[in-house]
Specification:
Elements lengths: L6 E6 L2 H4 L18 H4 L2 H6 L1 H14 L9 H12 L4 E5 L5 H5 L4 E3 L2 E8 L5 E3 L19 E5 L9 H8 L2 E7 L11 H8 L3 E6 L11 E4 L2 H15 L5
Parallel strand pairs: 1-2, 1-7, 2-3, 7-8, 8-9
Antiparallel strand pairs: 4-5, 4-6
Helix pairs in contact: 5-9
The structure holds ligand BJW.
The site of ligand BJW has 35 residues, from α1.
């Protein structure tokens, strides 16, 4: 019996979308330099001032429609890896933009939610939403007001798809972390989870060393649009290095 081709898990963060015109969070010109986490990215902030939080996400949702905001060479390379690698490639993104989908990735988990989806806290209906959302917008399913919220994961909330993510981290032979600062858990802990098993290679691809840089077996630094396509070429040509 021939062995199945090894599984790859890719984790992406805001850095992969930076060259598509979307801000990161913790760089000096990032989102958290302009707004406070406590004002927009916690359930308490939403309870205190829902309009402020809706405005923040309405602006970012509108930003996705800017003509220059399109998938870049790094998003495209990851879609190519999924198409051409003979085994499973699971793409786990912390990003709430839709650039991976637009590039063609299909086996994708948005662990921190999706900007183009909203849900009703009363009836739990989940729906695609491309326009502005107001606190008073009635739920199209149950008709109640004041329950519609962005489908994003705020601090203190449980990230999405965790069972599938850990199941795949437990079987992968390659873990790659791209454009994330390694500040936010549980994503920041994935590399230790994988390395603990002792059978998977781990690589960081970033503009500069992240918080957890020393935890990776290999690191490549540079803009995502340059280093990700070159890395994908290498894996498709040479396969996964031995641990
Ligand atoms: C480039 C580049 C280029 C730039 N090319 N690279 C104490 C200890 C440990 C954990 C905790 C703790 N206290 C609390 C926690 C848990 C907490 C947490 O981690 N806090 C830390 C701050 C310490 N985590 C949570 O609460 C999470 N939930 C959870 O743990 O649930 C379990 C649980 C729940 C309840 C009870 C008990 C347990 C939820 C986390 C939610 C994160 N949400 C946000 C905002 C929502 C989405 C949105 O609005 O977009 O998600 S925060 C923000 O950070 C966003 C991002 O997805 C996330 C990660 O950011 P990312 O992607 O890493 O971006 P940056 O800006 O940080 O980094 C960019 C990187 O790109 C940099 O490295 C650059 O160098 C690089 N770069 N240009 C390549 N061109």
């Amino acid at each position: 019996m021939t062995e199945a081709a090894p599984t790859i898990v890719i984790l992406t963060g805001a850095g992969i979308s930076k060259e598509s015109g979307l801000d990161t969070f913790r760089d000096s010109d990032g989102i958290w330099a302009k707004v406070r986490i406590e004002d927009v990215a916690t359930p308490e902030a939403f309870a205190r001032n829902p309009s402020r939080v809706q405005e923040f996400y309405n602006a970012r949702r509108a930003g996705l429609k800017e003509p220059g905001v399109v998938p870049n060479a790094a998003h495209e390379a990851l879609a190519r890896l999924e198409r051409d690698w003979p085994g499973e490639v699971l793409l786990v993104t912390q990003n709430i933009d839709d650039l991976h989908e637009r590039a063609g990735s299909r086996n994708l988990i948005h662990m921190h939610g999706e900007l183009l989806k909203v849900r009703c806290e009363y009836c739990e209906a989940l729906m695609t939403w491309t326009e502005s959302l107001q606190t008073t917008t009635p739920c199209p399913h149950c008709g109640r007001k004041n329950g519609m919220r962005p489908q994003v994961v705020w601090f203190g909330e449980m990230p999405l798809g965790m069972d599938k993510i850990y199941e795949t981290l437990d079987t992968c032979r390659l873990f790659v972390s791209i454009g994330t600062s390694g500040n936010v858990y549980p994503a920041a802990g994935f590399v230790q989870h994988v390395r603990y098993r002792g059978v998977a290679h781990s690589v960081e691809l970033n503009l500069e060393p992240s918080q957890g840089a020393t935890l990776f077996a290999e690191a490549i630094y540079g803009p995502a649009t340059e280093i990700v396509p070159a890395f994908v070429d290498r894996i498709l040509k040479d396969g996964i290095p031995e641990v």
